[in-house]
Amino acid sequence: DAGVIQSPRHEVTEMGQEVTLRCKPISGHNSLFWYRQTMMRGLELLIYFNNNVPIDDSGMPEDRFSAKMPNASFSTLKIQPSEPRDSAVYFCASRPGQGATYEQYFGPGTRLTVT
Amino acid sequence: DAKTTQPNSMESNEEEPVHLPCNHSTISGTDYIHWYRQLPSQGPEYVIHGLTSNVNNRMASLAIAEDRKSSTLILHRATLRDAAVYYCILIASGNTGKLIFGQGTTLQVKP
Lengths: 115, 111
Fold this sequence. Notes:
The complex is a heterodimer.
Chain A: E1 5-7, E2 10-13, E3 19-24, E4 31-38, E5 42-50, E6 53-56, E7 65-71, E8 74-79, E9 88-95, E10 105-106, E11 110-114
Parallel strand pairs in A: 2-11
Antiparallel strand pairs in A: 1-3, 3-8, 4-5, 4-9, 5-6, 7-8, 9-10, 9-11
Chain B: E1 9-13, E2 18-23, E3 31-38, E4 45-50, E5 55-56, E6 61-64, E7 70-75, E8 84-92, E9 105-110
Parallel strand pairs in B: 1-9
Antiparallel strand pairs in B: 2-7, 3-4, 3-8, 5-6, 6-7, 8-9
């Protein structure tokens, strides 16, 4: 089992550019989560999907952020336009079921730097 | 979701047991207690979870107080690889299971 796969692992871009982060969840998992981690705010949930449908996007900071899950094996988080305050580590996680007894499996993260 | 309180940091010696406390005085009867940890430069990883009874797995043990207002994660024999930030998180059973991370406890393990 390859685990949750994220790409790229590192991204450096200039302010105003579009950034797309990618995630491949573990096969068979039907829930997917995007988190952001910064020193100031810690780990924050941005959005999560269940069976490819966005369930809660209340953590998405603003309209510059968007996430899609076109199928069960792929999700993207897009920032357009990017700003320096978006610099953070972005984690994707998946889960095999819905509810409080299931554990989440996290990817290695994408470290985004916006200059 | 109910709030948890953890010490900011703890230290341990290698090969000794470690007891990481978590207070959750406002826990409801259907809240599960989950523990995750985050090793340096890695994503969080699941450690253990429980509802009322103590739980054991290959990584750790979870001791839950009888009134459920506190719990303790026990690492039976700390290794250098256990140095990480440990998060105690409550998840309501009817919740969709999303995790809300606090600041956690940073565990240092000394050789």
